[in-house]
Amino acid sequence: MENVLDLSRVLKINENCTWKKFDEKNYLICIDDGDRNSKLYISKEVIELLDLIDGNNSLEEIKTIYNKNSKYKLTDDTILKIFQKNLSGYGIFENDDDSRIKVKNKYIWLKMTIFNRSIVKKVSRFLTPVFSEKIFYPVLLTSLFITIIPFLFADYSNVYNAVDGNLFVNFIIINLLTLVFHEFGHSAACEKYGADSGKIGFGLYIMSPVFFSDVSDAWRLRRKERLIVDLGGIYLQLIITALLSIYFIINNDVKILSLISLILIGILFNLNPFLRFDGYWALSDCTNITNLRERATKASVKFYAWCIGRNKSFSPTKKEIFLILYGNFSLLIVINFALFMVVRQHNSIIYFPKNLYLFVHEIITKFPSDFNWYKKNIVTLMPFFAFYIIFIISFYQGLKKYLKKRYAI
Hints:
Helices cover 60% and strands 10% of the residues. It is mostly helical. Helix 4 (117-127) packs across helix 7 (165-192) and helix 11 (292-307) packs across helix 12. The two termini are 25 Å apart.
């Protein structure tokens, strides 16, 4: 779109642009050009303006029609501002550019496709029956209950020590298969409720390898359906762990409990509502709050300003109170982890690079065959590895924001 609009301009909606009601006050616009799926949240009043665009009416005529039928009265400057500053640059209109679209999912690096869209859709069709709204939550809770039963009577030291090197490799392979199954759960839930599922791939998130599925079309679904999509992967994993628990109850093989434990650790990590995993998206859809982390940060900043007397007019809504609690609880977890590491484990932090070097050097030069040696060292080094990764990423993001703000880089 040209840089400057005037009231004589006739616009036409891009055929790749669609929108749907998100909540009582907002709509969600989706611009899908085939390579990426971008979204924009706008008010009901702006949608009423977009509904008047038919490729024939000029902005002047749209303003006249809108003012005639609405309680709001737009001036020339106001309607130009809405289209020029708020709507242009997103690819909503024909011949418009998409220079203002931000690339999403930047938190997943080095993406690679494992299953293309056509394969995902074929496999997902076989799984859609188990995602019926009537049985989803009963099956989810029943599977969780059956999974937990063996652990109520288990000796955890035996569970930990049951896995040797050979079994560990097999368990890792089985766990990876359940993770792929997990992603098909998201895709199958999408297909069940009429949204298109995309590819399934592999990438890095906070330097940790992760699988991902493209379920961006789920925005078209109702909130209850989006929640099932969010939990669909964990749902299938819990069905698997429930079947394994039944096998354990029948055969009393403690190695099966070790395998279940490995899968459950992944499930619990996935339910973390403070990182962009399933728990985060489920909480976002459950509360109907988009951009949860960003909005929590903004609400918390307003709250802190009110605390020091710089935002005296601040009167938070129930949703803002939730965002403040969410943001501050997330911050407390980070601070608590950082303080524990710095105060209680400062020597281990200082010597982590050396210990990591010695660990890798030992593997390269001697290649130890004792599996317990690997298990002990990995368990010891992992928390400090996570600390360094979080610190490096936080420092990098902070530096990038500072340079962008100060030098417009």
